[in-house]
Amino acid sequence: MKASRISLLLGAAFLMATSAIGPGFLTQTTVFTQQLAASFGFVILMSILLDIGAQLNVWRIITVSEKRAQDIANMVLPGLGYLVALLIVLGGLAFNIGNVAGAGLGLNVLFGISAETGALVSAIIAIGIFLVREAGKLMDRFAQFMGAVMIVLTLYVAVTSSPPVGEAVVKSFVPDTIDVLAIVTLVGGTVGGYITFAGGHRLLDAGIKGVSSLPEVTKSSVSGIAIASVMRIILFLAALGIVAQGLQLDPSNPPASVFQLAAGQVGYKIFGVVMWAAAITSVIGSAYTSVSFIRTFHEKIDRYHNWIIVGFIAVSTLVFVLVGRPVKILVLVGALNGLILPLTLGVMLIAAYRKNIVGDYKHPLWMTIFGLIVTITMAVMGVYTLVNELPKLFQ
Length: 395
What we know:
Blueprint lengths: L2 H18 L2 H14 L3 H26 L3 H8 L3 H32 L3 H17 L3 H26 L4 H9 L6 H12 L3 H11 L8 H31 L9 H39 L6 H5 L1 H19 L3 H25 L3 H4 L6 H29 L2
């Protein structure tokens, strides 16, 4: 296999993984570790299996059909692709406000500048990537480098926190408690909304498609989940080391206190780097993937998609700088986001059996069953979240 092709496959895997590893990812992992201790290992294990079930199906159908998700949805049911695109773009825009805020916070920790200034600097860096001629390649390399930086630095903090690894391994298979909501939250955070399509659409843009590419695409899709999961596990162990010592985490910023309690002021600065890396790559992944959902609707959108991505990042940043993080919008979109995965994955599973979409391709039955389990589980919990969150917004 050519080195350039390997780089594209790895780039797609890292784009998906770093899109998942954002500020919310860091906070969720730390908070759930605090609540469930070593038993959170079981939640991570179950979520990895569900993540793989979702990702394998989605990337496979995109590759075989050689079409983006919105076009597949429109072929399954006319007009559905426009609804999916609307949900993805709104969700991506709202969460990008949070990602920009996280990038600002990371630079605030590192250099003492305000979060707003940090957000503007981060946005300029992200926009710069999409203004170069080889934007796709630069995005791939940036995601790979930042992903590696996050994993190495967090691993250092995990080692210094001295976690009870043996207990974590045992409780990953025999937990004291099983938290279903935590499992669904992790699945939604790793492959929910736009994230599961980030790598699939990137490979399509790079020309990696068709039945002959399936073995490579399968490896790339599983690699994306593996990279995100390695980061999740290392962060879990870092937090577990602190929790096991009986130390209290700062509720206003749990992940920062894990890094600081484990490695002092150096740990706090490492948190700044990890937070910035996590946030800036999520800004890039969210903008790129959200815009990829509207590219096929008009030739001018396709022609000027890089400029639309730039606008997407700029709007997200301006909203944060001028308004702050609109909590109610984020909560509402977060609840809607829980319904995007079952909707899109359900569409993909139907498409897998439509000859006008996949031709003579035969989708493995075990993969369909796997996908159905994920779809039903996430649909039930997505509705549960929506019903519980909506009334709070109007109180």
